[in-house]
Task: inverse folding
């Protein structure tokens, strides 16, 4: 388990949790589950280790550039205001 510094935004305590993360880049979105992240217990800000950021970026490229099939596909409603 990784130890994190206090939140740089609000000073709250940051603890490691497993989260779902919406990874957006250009016009694409991939939802990545079970991501280890530091999460501030006060404001909810998320912090990622460099190796996790690299893995999320590789996952994005695997799906959108290398045409690897994702584990599952979600249908997401969209609206415009």
Result:
């Amino acid at each position: 388990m990784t130890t994190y510094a206090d939140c740089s935004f609000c000073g709250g305590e940051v603890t490691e949790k497993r989260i779902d993360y919406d990874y957006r880049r250009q016009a694409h979105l991939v939802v990545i589950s079970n991501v280890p992240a530091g999460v501030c217990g006060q404001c909810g800000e998320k912090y990622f280790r460099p190796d996790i950021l690299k893995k999320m970026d590789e996952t994005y490229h695997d799906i959108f550039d290398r045409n690897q099939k994702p584990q599952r596909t979600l249908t997401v409603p969209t609206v415009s205001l």
